[in-house]
Amino acid sequence: LINDEWYLKVISATRLIAADFGSKPSSDPYVRVSLGSNSVKTKTIKKNLSPVWNQSFVLPVTSFQDPILFQVFDKDTLGSDDSLGAVKCFLHGINEGQEQVRALKLYGGEHGSNIQAVLGSKSKGAKQAATTTVASQAATNATGNATAGKLMGKFMEKAQKFGSDSSNKKDLEEQANIQFGIDSTRPGILGRVDNNFGVLLVAFCWFSTQQAAQSYAIQTPPAIGLLTARLISGRNLLAADFGSRPSSDPYCVLSLGNQRQTSKAIKNTLNPDWNQLFGFQDVQNGDKLVMSVWDKDTAGSDDSLGDGIVEISALPVGQETFFLVELFGGESGENIHGVIDDKVQPMGQNIASVTAQNAIGGEAGKLAGHIIKKIPQGKENKNKGTIALGITLSSPLGSSQPAPMQRSIPTREISVVEGANDLGCPP
To answer: How far apart are CA 263 and CA 42, in angstroms?
Structure first.
């Protein structure tokens, strides 16, 4: 008979699926946490794709082989709630009192009533198809050779899909989570999402007594400066390296004014776990912490995987505050799949709409060009990467002039390590 207890804290999430249609598509998210036959539920946060719950629970341990199930839903007043994704967290190999703070990728999910999201996902496919068709017809017209046209069409089709097949080589736990995400989703008429970039931040720790679990609070890391940054992990980073499964060797540079700290680089992963502490001195009210993520290259310059900024002015003293920071920018590096993705959208509209009439001919060509022009381009951030970190102030911020905000630059002298074995939670 097991009498142990799990302490659980659901902290926050970001990049959640917008399941509700409106002038600004959003969701009303909550999290259901299940362990064995026991389950608890967070409060619902209205109209928010980056909710903060900060809610703690205690659940009895039924078996150390049972994973903790996290399911995120959009609360609906009519009909069933929509799935925003789910993840199983396997917790074997964790010792009593060993606190874990984890950023978890979400799997599965559905569009709910958000038809705009469905149209957005379909438009990319339409542009890719149009690009393939026009390239094939243009090659045929230019060379007078139908075989050349077919070869060009096949090349474009393979180029656009390059890397997607190889990325399906998942480990067993990730495969289990993909299936769990599917099983947790009962899609309505708009169907499941193609890709879920949602990230859920949680903490957990197990104890041999219920009293110890109920009285527990997340431990503040030791102060190593006026500001201590706990760099936890990255999720869904850009793949900058070409290979059978495109990946990166990511490291993070944290900058605060002229102060810079650099993490280790983790090899061959888009979901690194750094778990490192960094300290900063002489921090002023109004300063901003800049995080720049890079792909470590042995030859040539390192590739940017994006940047993020954290405002630190309103943080409490002596208490760790957690952040899920969305990255922007970044580059494809040597990953030809990423380069092609960048080119497909303008090719699909600029080339296809202009040359559809000549390449396809007649009324069908006119219609194809007209439809392609009507497909919205949008200005979506292509970088879906997220960084998880905690920040603690050991004393109040200074009142001097804030330091100029500077983007971090790549660092040559850093340690490179293999991806550490995960303790059970998939990235």
So the answer is: 33
